[in-house]
UniProtKB/TrEMBL annotation, chains A, B, C, D:
Record lineage: Archaea, Thermoproteota, Thermoprotei, Fervidicoccales, Fervidicoccaceae
Name of this chain's protein: Aspartate-semialdehyde dehydrogenase
Top-level enzyme category: oxidoreductase
InterPro entries (UniProt xref): ASADH-related, Asp_semi-ald_DH_pep-lack, NAD(P)-bd_dom_sf, Semialdehyde_DH_NAD-bd, Semialdhyde_DH_dimer_dom
Family: Belongs to the aspartate-semialdehyde dehydrogenase family.
Gene: asd
NCBIfam families: asd_EA, PRK08664.1
One BP annotation, GO: methionine biosynthetic process
Keyword Transit peptide: no
SUPFAM superfamilies: Glyceraldehyde-3-phosphate dehydrogenase-like, C-terminal domain (SSF55347), NAD(P)-binding Rossmann-fold domains (SSF51735)
Keywords: NADP, Oxidoreductase
Sequence ranges assigned to domain Semialdehyde dehydrogenase NAD-binding in this UniProt record: 5-132
């Protein structure tokens, strides 16, 4: 089978590295281009990157010559561009990629709330991909990867919304250092400390899950109709965002057992039938131990694509639910979901559905 | 002036060490007895303690011989006992101290919710100390120090309750390692990690603040009539509990500025007039920077007796308030408040009011 | 092929867990017994263990009922005992296992310096296993796993000894928390800190490598004739001991390049021919980047069985060599080497050589 | 008494902040100018600085308007300039300050090894200040603060050199994050990790202590005649450099007790008679506990100006000494020593000796 030829833009950053790692030997994609800043362009990837993952950097990919984004834009021989760029830069580059007719899978935050651009967390809202059919004002197609915290939260909310309905969500997050990239959080600011603020994050967490959980309307995606109140903090953890969630349910639940069933028995949408390689067999792992999930121990499930949920508690009225949810912010929250989106696109495209 | 002669029970633990530090050269108290486990009894304090504070251990106090609790119970020549014992042990020992007629200032969790035992966070509810007048079934008097998280939370809620009324509180905490004592959290469990559970903590946080903020009734203290939903977690921070709080206000606030005023201008109860040495000049410090309070930077105010509040956000309706509050768990949350309680008692006792 | 039936003693500890993980689906060994303290005995392994590894605990092994060591000693139907017990307890239990005729692979520190008991770091001194032939005062056979730091150090010294000779070794270690077991280092003692002392460690590091690098003599193993000066410290790292080494060489080296060649081209003893499953293809990885090896990035090579060496510097005289060596203390420094020893034994036993 | 008017160049960095803190209410100095980068110039110090110290930032100093270095160079009304600039920038700025006739106390690494520029660790080599008399090729005077690690090491070596003589020094350091400044070490690189390399550091540590311990010669300072072999590493500790030292003594010591006496009874040079405010009463604190010094517990002595030494071990021959020494890298290793140097200068200048 012919592989799609793919490029990773912003390949030396942390999310970029994970994209590279996941795409290095992927059966649907062939990694052909990598871009980085001017300073690194011209060097081989191996020389320029400060490789921080435990995944081994593959021999051939290490040899790829880095381009600037501008240089890449002069090339035609690739199909899909994965972007992991700062959002301002992304806005310019992605516009040009779309003019060129490329398929863009973007991890950047620009345009995420545009009602005609699918913001995909595939197990939750794979069908939103059909928004691509109305993307007619440019030659290419663009799909957005949700913000890390939103990807994890929305996955946990989906079974609840379907079974009980959701009236309100209150969430406090404890987010990993890697969420700020390779050099985002200086160690002097975080050892023996935490920072109760992440710039721009709360607005994303209060909006993106509602779009992901939204439905088709006349004007594109109509966000789900509940409110989210978020407080986001940074803690000294390398990988894995932890979220303390309180949900006011629309319909009462009878017991925590019923909630656990909702999480476990949820029938995720039909992407399961597509056997996408990056889709985890169980998107949600329920942890029954009192003191779980913990980032260092539980961020690994489903190769980082499963979230884990624990501390499920229901109040006496049955309508106030609390739980703690954890997911790998770089995989489920960024590059992993990006690759899953591309797999979904590729599969549907092959079937002629998109 | 004559000093009260005081004992610290459980003096080698972390809270015990802080009691010792605060009482070493106190103008109202003379430290005469220290107790520890059988294994340490007989040794000098300096030899037995694994002194972990940056406060210097005073020369003479280091020389005090350690007693077991049993040995202390045979001594008469002291007035006040500060206890920092596990609650089961505390229950037995405190009973005996009360039979002996001692004044007990207890940091242990037993009996905290007893409506006739004052649970004191002096700036908030110093008047609850008059419950002592109805403690007639034993010769002594006993006052309880609140749970660390509850002390911090209730101090932040008091101005809100007075100005706006409180309908509901939802709180997620990020608690310091020291809250579990010297050896409570093994490093292998917490480096690059957090633990979303602290045994017994949530029940305390959901109840103690309501008693502290409660009022006198026929059956002792009547708890305040709002609900608290707590999720408590442990993070890799040495000192300082951080709490992400959402409060549904009874009366709408107009602006965050009004909230800030409420925190800053609250007239704390009359203990200010008593000039107690451990009372901070400002119980609440409002931080205006976006990324504060942070435990390592802000746990120091008022020698650890002030809490700091930041990230004050009000929703559009004016009735949903969010903020982050931080306090030193060992000082405001334990030994410091214990000493302040004893100062309050001593002063009122001298004035013949108790 | 028939598998050896094996037991792990002290299976709930950290080294015990790693033994369990490595032996769960091993082609030469079948895990049949696990022991733990009285408190855990009778429970299933899954229930009793505080599983902290990222390796998944296998379904069937999780179901194994825990025995006490005493109960195990009444069983006959196993061949090899892997011990991960405190050394005093080990002394008693291992004596009994030997009387029973069992083969003991011991990670405990008792008897390590006995000249007739092989202290094996197989790539370095597999031939010392023939000491077993003179173990005639009991029915069983016993082999010792070196102290973690010594295993790593001796592996790095072997090529140098062969090529240049070693006159003196000065080493300062920065050892991981896991070296003290699951609960050995409380977090309050090590966050924002290091501890420049590890009980009993320096004596081991100054002696064990000399035995490992020693030769057969009339009285068993004769230690290598150079002195080691060790300073051992504990740092806030989860896994991976880092050692800063200075070696005075007997014969001058010409260049760091010659040293690198010595490390890379060393022909390890014939165990390579045995194709033991746990033997790494490259026992030593030379890192050329200035800032490597680093524990979090480099502890992973050879599934934790390879050590990595960097910062190789030679003084102008060519006889003072400095380098930094790193190895996984739980795998190369304990359970991994234990399993490799057992594989060596099993293979030679099958061939009738032991 | 008239105060010297002083400027701090590079005031928003970590060392700059500590200079500001130490000079804010100093009886000999009045802080009048602060400089920072172009980006911050014009702002008030309080607004521009990311104040990370626990020392409170004084009200008036917070109000000082920041200048660029260029703007400062147009001002005449100050006497002493404390520089905490990158060395390349320092080279330019310090040259101009010297042309202007200013007294420069420089924490930057340029020119430190110039034999006619005093590299001062005042308790060790206050007399080197008389090199200033031969600084005649420019109008001003310049004195250098040693590299942090060298300041701590040389202080520990001085008593040994005087009593026993030093033949060789081998040192491995474990250095704090703050040594790299506010943002030098990203948290992603150091959590659960250490880095066995610090750029340019080993060369400094191998040379500066020898100059500090050197003597006057025809060509300025003649370095002490022993060799130092250094390996420097970065560990996840906020403040406090720990150094594992092995010293080959020229004359044998009889016992560790004799070494301890040498450390404790050393008569530091006559600066004690000058009663300089920043000079600690005991430059060296000997710790007898096995597991000390530890950075978090022991960096505080003498307000950060004392070093602490522990783990003193002497080999059987009496000529190989090992110990661990610790000091606050920002105070003893930078700003504190800088202020002490300025005090020494000011005092001698007042007495007309310089």
């Amino acid at each position: 089978m012919d592989k799609f030829r793919v490029a990773v833009l912003g390949a030396t950053g942390l999310v970029g590295q994970k994209f590279v790692s996941l795409l290095s030997s992927h059966k649907m994609f062939e990694l052909v281009y990598l871009t980085a800043s001017e300073r690194s362009a011209g060097k081989r990837y191996r020389e320029a990157v400060n490789w921080i993952l435990n995944d081994e950097l593959s021999e051939n990919v290490g040899e790829i010559r880095l381009y600037t984004n501008e240089e890449l834009l002069t090339r035609r021989d690739f199909d899909i561009a994965f972007t992991a760029l700062p959002s301002e830069e992304a806005e310019v580059v992605e516009s040009k990629l779309l003019e060129m007719g490329k398929v863009v899978v973007s991890n950047s935050s620009n345009w995420r709330m545009d009602p005609f651009i699918p913001l995909l967390n595939p197990e939750v809202n794979a069908d939103h991909i059909y928004l691509l059919r109305s993307q007619n004002n440019f030659k290419g197609k663009i799909m957005k990867v949700p913000n890390c915290t939103s990807a994890i939260l929305s996955l946990s909310l989906k079974p609840l919304m379907n079974r009980f309905g959701v009236r309100k969500v209150i969430v406090t997050t404890m987010q990993a250092l890697s969420g700020a990239g390779l050099t985002g959080v200086p160690s002097m600011f975080i050892v023996d400390n935490l920072i109760p603020y992440i710039q721009g994050e709360e607005e994303k967490v209060e909006n993106e899950p509602r779009k992901i959980l939204g439905s088709f309307g006349l004007k594109g995606i109509q966000p789900a109709g509940f409110e989210i109140f978020a407080t986001t903090t940074r803690v000294p953890v390398l990988y894995g965002h932890t979220e303390s969630v309180l949900v006011e349910l629309r319909d009462k639940a009878e017991s925590t057992e019923e909630i656990i069933q909702a999480f476990r028995d949820h029938s995720w949408n039909k992407i399961a039938d597509l056997s996408l390689p990056t889709a985890p067999s169980e998107p949600i792992i329920v942890k029954k131990e009192n003191d779980r999930p913990q980032p260092r121990l539980d961020r690994v499930y489903g190769n980082g694509m499963s979230i884990s949920i624990g501390r499920i508690r229901l109040d006496l009225t049955g309508s106030v639910l609390r739980y703690v949810v954890l997911g790998d912010n770089i995989i489920r929250g960024a590059a992993g979901t990006g690759v899953l989106i591309a797999e979904l696109y590729a599969e549907l495209n092959k079937k002629g559905k998109i």
